[in-house]
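@channel sequence for tomorrow's demo:
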Amino acid sequence: MLDLYVVFMLELYYREQLNASIVLPPSAILSIDIGPIVVYTINDNHYYYQKGVNMKTLKYSRQRESIKNCLAARCDHPTADALYASIREEFPNISLGTVYRNLNLLVELGEIQKLSFGDGSDHFDSRITPHYHFVCKCCRQVSDLPMSPLDEINSLAQRYYDGVIESHTTTFYGLCQTCREGKS
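structure tokens (generated this afternoon):
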């Protein structure tokens, strides 16, 4: 069920923007709750609302959607530069700055993850559920490990810390199969 306050804020926003009196029918609004952010889609325009923060309007963007789809289709945790090279096939005039801005916006909205593995570049992952990564020390390839998260680590660490531990990240380093076979 939609938060009536948010619907009221959306109506106020539309009145201010369009200088008109609009009452939004409930069927015109699609609501998705992603943690502290609620996404409302009205006529292909996306509105992001966070309690205590002014609403942010974000129009639908084919480029942003293409960046998301390209990232979702990849398992290699690409850098912004690698995504830029892929996106340019579909959008030859897109700038690297546009790719960076959209990736950072998607991270801020919780739709993708930004990962750092000590190589000086940020990597991006469309999989936002808890999972572990493996980084090859030779070729720098990043891959997901097909193992379940070990939630008991949080409880174990909690015994040694007075604050509240909510989650953890773990990255494994070593040689991938290709590099291991090449060293043999």
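heads up for whoever presents: The mean pLDDT is 79.
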